[in-house]
Amino acid sequence: MKRRDFIRIIALSLASIPFRSYARDRKCVVLDDGGCSRKSIANLEKLVDVPVTVAVLPGSGYQRQTLNILRQYKNADVLLHQPMEPINMKERGLSIGQFGIYNSYSKKQAIETLERSIDALDYPIVGMNNHMGSLVTQNMGLMSTIAEYCAEHSLILLDSRTISTSVMYDAGIKAGAKAYRNSCFIDDHLSRLYSFSGVAIGHIQNTDTVNRYHSFAKRHDISRISQLT
Ligand SMILES: [Zn+2]
User: Fold this and answer.
1) How far apart are CA 136 and CA 226, in angstroms?
2) What element of type H or E holds 184?
């Protein structure tokens, strides 16, 4: 082996080993339903000194106030929290509002709705995830369309996994988007903060979640979603 090749191999192994383990260790908690209530504002204000990733509902009552706070934070990422049709929506008395993507939508309607949501936030978002959506996230046609849009616009696509048969993450990977999937919801299992890896989801209106996240983030390494590799 030539000396030059030997040096190259050493350099490659030194460069790759620590980087990979560092990347794998990074974790992020996305706080969903940003803008939904006055309580969500009070909770958000507690997070000024830790990294935060907030998914904001387009057109929500406290959207503007939420984004004004996040704009002042040095360490904050914003995702669009895109409403999508869940299973048995009407029977369950649920609604996804004027910014929702319905399962009956054509690809064109889905993109138009997505763009209206993005315009409604009027903020430099880093990506999107789904609000509800247990029906639409199983629809490969619509998920591919949305994933391709995210890949084209360099937006992160986070599958909230409101149903285990969601195909959003797979569509994202196939489209070449920077895609992640929720590993667990933490609101009712706050000790999972210590054990999960990758991305987990909590809710900003849940005061216990926010308090626990804050104390966790003060003591442990936690990333914004755009810092994951
Ligand atoms: Zn939600």
Assistant:
1) 25
2) strand 179-185
The model's pLDDT over 82-112, given as tens digits with 9 standing for 90+, comes to 999 999 999 999 999 999 999 999 999 999 9
Cα 113 to averaged position of ligand 1 atoms, centre (Å): 17
Domain containing residue 155: CATH number: 3.20.20.370
Q: What is the whole-number distance in angstroms between the Cα of residue 189 and the centre of ligand 1?
A: 17
pTM above 0.85, yes or no: yes
Domain count for the chain: 1
Q: What's the angle, vertex CA 96, arms to CA 112 and CA 223, rounded to 5?
A: 80
- Does some domain include residue 194? yes
Task: Provide the pLDDT confidence category of residue 18 given band limits of 50, 70 and 90.
Answer: very low
CA of 45 to the centre of ligand 1 (A): 19
- How many angstroms does the Cα of residue 108 sit away from the middle of ligand 1? 24
Task: List residues bridging with 207 in a β-sheet.
Answer: none
Residue 34 lies in domain:
26-227
Q: Which residues surround ligand 1, an ion (CB under 5 A)?
A: 32-33, 131
Structural domain includes residue 56: yes
